[in-house]
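Feature request disguised as a bug: please show the residue count (295) next to Lipoprotein NlpI in the output. Example input:
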Amino acid sequence: MKIKFSLVTILLLSILSGCASSSNTQSSSVAKVVIAEPLPVNQQSEVAIARLTEILNRVEVSQDQKAKLFYDRGVIYDSVGLRGLASYDFQRALRLKPDLVDAYNFIGIHHTQRQEFLQAYEAFDSAIELDEKHEYAYLNRGIALYYGGRPQLALEDMRRFQLEQQNDPYRISWLYIIENEIDPVSAKDNLRVNLSSIGHNSWANNILRLFLGDISEQDFVATLTVGVKSHKELVDRLCEGYFYLGKYKLLNKSVNTSSDYFKLALSTNVYEFIEHRYAKLELDLIKANVAPMPN
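Example output, currently without the count:
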């Protein structure tokens, strides 16, 4: 594990990230951040891609088996950030096996990341039509609806997703983010009730405390290394933590700071995490000056 503590300001963070923020938004300083080496590409993933490619090119398999091989390779491509290749494999898998539910879910995620919201809705709808109990299709459709400017519809999906595991702080966080878009006061009341009902004290509960204002931004950053036992665990937590710090600052209209936190989340290279997937979308929306903001 390699951890580096740095005293930085927003100006320094902006220089490090190579991007200037808009001057008409409120700025605040970050007292201390935790920086770790980005997650390297897993060599086992590279080997798995090579083996699957060899099987696809040289071995005679059934149509269903070939669809599964394309899907499996797409998942690995996605996990190392090669989303164009992943989407191509998912599409090929669906041409061979049109009822491959998880492929629709991934395709919908990729459409959301590219702000192709109508195509994303169609992909998630297809996944849910094939399997109405596919809870992550509801999560991802809810997120697509949120970013697509349809918070009321997003809320229906996110409530359903959160009810599957009511003690999950990540599910509660996304529920709050969407509720905040509709009614910030009610959203905070509901968040406090949901936090009080959690029967465990995991690190991620601090995300909810941050949104509630029960802990400061700096105190939240200080929790990022608590109990961490490996480099992988560290970068995973930094990816999550900086994304939610970015959302917290964005919801409080500190766009300069939020942008820097989203860049820090991206710098971890934890491509599989939902927080990494949507940190780039958040930055794109900020640049376009259409980021979702509280009413």
